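User: Could you go from structure to sequence for me? I need the amino acid at each position, not a summary. Structure tokens:
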């Protein structure tokens, strides 16, 4: 699993934010378009693409996209 691929899947959940806005260091909670609905879309995407069940705590404790990526990667290896 590569972070570049994860970011592309992550960015697909946003309709109005350009892919160039998304980097490992992006603080996704601060994105103008980010909402609880997008958070649910991200959780669903991670489940579908990676077979990992994220919870609300995983989302709220992640500051950057890379933080979330690391959580997903850890759960894949469990």
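Assistant: Here is the amino acid at each position, in order:
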């Amino acid at each position: 699993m590569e972070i570049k691929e994860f970011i592309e899947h992550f960015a697909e959940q946003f309709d109005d934010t350009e892919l160039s806005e998304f980097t490992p260091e992006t603080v996704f909670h601060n994105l103008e378009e980010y909402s609880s609905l997008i958070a649910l879309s991200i959780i669903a995407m991670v489940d579908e693409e990676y077979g990992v069940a994220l919870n609300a705590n995983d989302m709220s404790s992640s500051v950057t996209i890379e933080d979330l990526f690391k959580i997903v990667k850890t759960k894949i290896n469990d």
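One structural detail worth keeping in mind: The helical segments are 3-11, 36-50, 56-61, 65-77.
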